[in-house]
């Protein structure tokens, strides 16, 4: 991103980062050393101090692709009225410039703007001195961003879509909306069909990123649902993912969701099939799941009520049936106290389940995804709290209130064995496990 001849010592620049939480932000800095042969620069940041010596600015060596010149100052927000509604801007926040969109422009004697950040769904108020018109550094020159052509956006004005409601950066429900217009790149202005502003009769509008929008799912007539079916339930003007736990009378169903405090009852008309968007196509997850099959030689997983082991599942082989709903099993990884042979013990049926079905190869687990982690010879349920480099993750365990780092091969998607069926919720919220 540097000019053809590169930056020289003393040049004022802006530096981006690939670090989680800082992607998309640019930090003001000054070049203190140029290394053109290896395409790297050493810079001193203007607003970031060295934690080891807070009297000094932070000095760092960065790749040339993260460095660009500073935009022309005369295009910044220096006078009232320079920036307009829905204009892409850079906002100076937490010592860096972040790309956003003007959501509310000042009127009359007002002097402050409201800026939304569609990727994170935040909205913050700024004075004009903290804003500048957003420019793109393209082909070694600064240019104003152009709105996309109609063929460049997947959703034209008037298209009905669904917009995610987020908690801890993860979708928990979907709300129907109409696309009003595309603002810039992946930023879209939508108007909700069922949501209104507080104390206002007007429908709520929001600028959102395309990553939080999906097409309207298939509308398939439903005659009935089976117990354990994954559904979406219409609640609070949005569609929430849940599982049918009970089929009641009069076409009513009890539904459990990880996002509600307790089960809720819904009429058939307030439920719909759950579909997943795969490569642009709506696909329904098969509801036919494996039944319990335990016999001699079968590989199973066994749980324990013993203190320190509650919640974990250990791989074992069934040796034989020794009574009604009781089995003699041999663990595959746990050994006797003298470590001379594999541990054998009797367990009852409620503490046995089949081995979970394997999923297709997963390239990457997502933030807040619920997983099983292989630790101390067993599988323990936890939540991904951070994705590291080289396929490693930090997992939080509620029972211990502790975070531990794991490699990708030591994790698997979490599934629950409920009344003879495997059930998998797409994600758990961190808030629900840290209570």
**Largest sheet, if any?**
10 strands, antiparallel
Whole-number mean pLDDT: 85
| Structural class estimated from helices and strands | mainly beta
Number of strands: 36
* Overall morphology: flat
Give Rg in angstroms.
27 Å
Termini separation comes to: 45 Å
Assembly context of the chains: single chain
Query: Unreliable stretches, pLDDT < 50, 5 or more residues?
Result: 76-80, 426-435
Into which percentage range does the β-strand content fall?
Answer: over 45%
Q: Given the structure, what is the number of helices?
A: 1
How helix-rich are the residues, as a percent range?
Answer: under 10%
Task: Write structural notes for this entry.
There is one protein chain. Strands 13, 14, 15, 16, 17, 18, 19, 20, 21 and 22 form a 10-stranded antiparallel β-sheet that branches. Strands 25, 26, 27, 28, 29, 30, 31, 32, 33 and 34 form a 10-stranded antiparallel β-sheet that branches. A 5-stranded antiparallel β-sheet has the order 4-3-2-1-5, with no helix packed on it. It contains 1 helix and 36 strands. With 435 residues, the protein is mostly beta strands. β8 and β9 (122-127) form a beta hairpin. Helix content is 1%, strand content 53%. It has one helix at residues 430-433; strands at residues 12-16, 26-35, 40-50, 53-63, 67-69, 88-93, 96-104, 112-117, 122-127, 131-133, 136-138, 141-143, 160-167, 170-184, 187-196, 203-209, 213-215, 230-235, 238-247, 252-256, 264-267, 271-273, 275-278, 281-284, 299-303, 312-323, 326-335, 342-348, 352-354, 370-375, 378-387, 392-397, 402-407, 411-413, 416-418, 421-423.
């Amino acid at each position: 991103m540097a000019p053809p001849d590169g930056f020289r010592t003393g040049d004022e620049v802006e530096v981006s980062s690939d670090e989680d939480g800082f992607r998309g932000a640019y930090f003001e800095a000054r070049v203190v050393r140029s290394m053109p042969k290896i395409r790297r620069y050493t810079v001193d940041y203007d607003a970031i101090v060295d934690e080891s010596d807070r009297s000094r600015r932070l000095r760092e060596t960065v790749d040339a692709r993260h460095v660009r010149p500073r935009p022309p100052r005369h295009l910044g927000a220096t006078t009232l009225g320079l920036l307009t509604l829905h204009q892409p801007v850079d906002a100076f926040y937490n010592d860096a410039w972040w790309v956003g969109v003007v959501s509310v422009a000042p009127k009359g004697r007002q002097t402050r703007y409201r800026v939304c950040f569609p990727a994170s769904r935040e909205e913050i108020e700024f004075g004009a001195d903290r804003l500048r018109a957003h420019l793109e550094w393209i082909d070694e020159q600064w240019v104003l961003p152009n709105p996309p052509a109609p063929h460049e956006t997947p959703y034209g004005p008037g298209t009905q879509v669904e917009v995610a409601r987020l908690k801890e950066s993860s979708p928990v429900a979907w709300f129907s909306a109409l696309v009003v217009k595309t603002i810039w790149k992946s930023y879209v202005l939508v108007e909700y069909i069922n949501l209104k502003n507080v104390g206002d009769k007007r429908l709520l509008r929001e600028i959102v990123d395309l990553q939080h929008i999906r097409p309207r799912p298939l509308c398939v007539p439903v005659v009935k649902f089976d117990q354990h079916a994954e559904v979406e339930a219409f609640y609070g003007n949005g569609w929430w993912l849940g599982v049918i736990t009970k089929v009641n009378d009069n076409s009513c169903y009890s539904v459990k969701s990880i996002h509600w405090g307790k089960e809720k009852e819904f009429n058939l008309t307030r439920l719909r099939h759950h579909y997943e968007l795969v490569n642009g196509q709506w696909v329904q997850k098969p509801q036919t799941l494996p039944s319990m099959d335990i016999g001699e030689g079968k590989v199973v997983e066994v749980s324990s009520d013993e203190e320190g082991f509650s919640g974990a599942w250990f791989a074992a082989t069934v040796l034989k049936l020794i009574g009604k709903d009781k089995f003699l099993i041999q663990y595959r990884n746990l050994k006797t106290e003298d470590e001379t042979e594999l541990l054998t013990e009797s367990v009852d049926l409620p503490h046995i389940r089949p081995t979970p079905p394997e999923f297709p190869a997963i390239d990457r687990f997502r933030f807040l995804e619920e997983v099983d982690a292989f630790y101390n010879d067993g599988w323990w349920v936890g939540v991904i709290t951070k994705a590291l480099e080289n396929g490693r993750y930090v997992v939080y365990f509620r029972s211990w209130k502790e975070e531990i780092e794991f490699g990708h091969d030591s994790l698997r998607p979490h599934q629950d064995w409920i009344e003879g069926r495997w059930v998998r919720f797409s994600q758990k919220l961190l808030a629900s496990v840290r209570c």
